[in-house]
Specification:
By secondary structure, the protein is mainly α. It has 13 helices and no strands. Helices cover about 70% and strands about 0% of the residues. Helix 4 runs antiparallel to helix 6 and helix 4 (about 80-100) packs across helix 10. The longest helix is centred in the N-terminal third of the chain and has 44 residues, at about 5-50.
């Protein structure tokens, strides 16, 4: 039978506390990683189903009717393709804000190089802004990590006043169409960017703005989620959903327009 001396006991006690601390640290780290993995999995699952805290089509139905009535007379005087151009402007605005915003604040010469892959988007943004009479329009500036992480809310706040200008030259309904397109643009840019994580659309805001813009749920619902499968599948499905909405904007002119379909 081994007899522990007082010195041996003290030696074991000195090592017992560090081991406890190490085990506790490992356990907490594993718990944190497990919670993070579960949250990411849950967020991805919600992104695949397009979950919202309410039903936007019902929640905003009355407000949408009021906005449509306020916008009817103003939109009757607009070109039938005006709503389509508003959507295109919002899409490019959101796309470029997301794509270039991910690089943060860089020197002008570096930013010029980083902008080359999206030169066509920049050109379309400029051309569409001039066509609508709201130029100049540029992407939301991103100077800090907080600016980029809060991009969705910054689009809502409209710090550059682009949505406000759309309302002035168009209507309240078209303001919501612009904001819808901006959130769709950020999502498409996130899907086009390299990475393993599944981007999560601004589902609630997409549903709200689409409803307030008079967009049928069958058209906006596919834009509020990402399909399952490879990154290429997600990209192609989302692009197809965007194309369907744009076609609908052409085929169904603004409320009050003489060419509106029944």
């Amino acid at each position: 039978m081994t007899t522990l001396t007082p010195e041996t006991t003290r030696h074991h006690a000195r090592w017992r506390e560090p081991r406890r601390f190490l085990l506790a640290t490992v356990a907490i780290t594993l718990l944190y990683l497990g919670i993070q993995a579960f949250w990411m999995w849950g967020a991805a699952e919600l992104a695949h189903v397009g979950w919202t805290v309410n039903d936007p089509a019902r929640t905003y139905a009355y407000e949408a009717a009021e906005i449509a009535e306020k916008s009817r007379e103003r939109e009757a005087a607009l070109d039938p393709h005006f709503p389509q151009h508003v959507f295109q402007l919002g899409f490019e605005y959101g796309y470029l804000s997301q794509w270039l915003g991910g690089y943060g604040q860089q020197p002008a010469e570096i930013m010029e190089q980083l902008s080359r892959p999206v030169e066509a988007h920049i050109r379309r943004l400029d051309e569409t802004a001039k066509l609508l009479g709201v130029a100049p329009v540029s992407r939301l500036p991103v100077r800090t990590a907080a600016d980029f992480s809060g991009l969705t809310q910054r689009i809502e706040i409209d710090p550059e006043g682009v949505a406000g200008r759309i309302e002035q030259v168009g209507s309240p309904r078209l303001r919501h169409l612009f904001l819808l397109a901006a959130h769709v643009g950020t999502m498409m840019a996130a899907l086009d960017s390299p990475g393993d994580m599944t981007p999560i659309p601004a589902t609630q805001l997409i549903g709200m703005h689409a409803t307030l813009a008079g967009i049928r749920e069958a058209l906006w619902r596919p834009l509020s989620l990402v399909s399952r499968g490879s990154r290429e599948t997600m990209q192609s499905d989302y692009q197809a959903a965007i194309a369907h909405l744009e076609i609908a904007l052409v085929d169904t002119p603004a409320p009050g327009n003489a060419r509106q379909t029944q």
